[in-house]
Design a protein that fits this description.
By secondary structure, the chain is mainly beta. The chain is built from 2 helices and 6 strands. The protein has helices at 3-10, 53-59, and strands at 14-19, 38-44, 48-51, 75-83, 86-99, 118-122.
Length: 129
């Protein structure tokens, strides 16, 4: 399969990760769109998204309100659905993040000790019609 065909197949599942909370500076308008700090793509209809480990690590560096509950990750996953009239932003609630802390490579492996891969689970699920 060509790269163009692969892109056309997966582009409907590309996810952008943005901070839910952005401190507003005095005399500055809030941004029109929150800054994207990472991307991923849906790998399973039950809400599983694959991303890079460095994206998940960066979540802890984002600004968080002091009274934020522990179960609020402080981020949103945004799915961009392409329509005839443009793009639709679908905000997905993040339920949890999963990182690889142990990795046992096969016989031939030339990558890092632990691959730069992680997973994020979102609440929304796909339904078959």
């Amino acid at each position: 399969m060509s790269l163009a065909k692969i892109y056309n197949t997966i582009k409907q599942s590309v996810i952008a990760f943005v901070p839910k909370y952005i401190p507003i500076k005095e005399n500055e308008p809030p941004p029109e769109f929150p800054p994207i700090f990472g991307t991923g793509f849906v790998v399973k209809e039950d809400g599983l998204i694959v991303t890079n480990d460095h994206v998940v690590k960066s979540i802890s560096k984002l600004w968080r309100p002091p009274d934020l509950p522990k179960n609020d990750w402080g981020i949103e996953a945004i799915l961009f659905k392409h329509t005839e009239k443009g793009s639709l932003e679908v905000s997905l609630k993040v339920l949890g993040v999963f990182r690889i802390d142990q990795f046992i490579p096969g016989t031939v492996y030339y990558g890092p000790k632990i691959p730069d891969i992680a997973f994020i689970r979102v609440k929304e699920k796909a339904y078959q019609h």
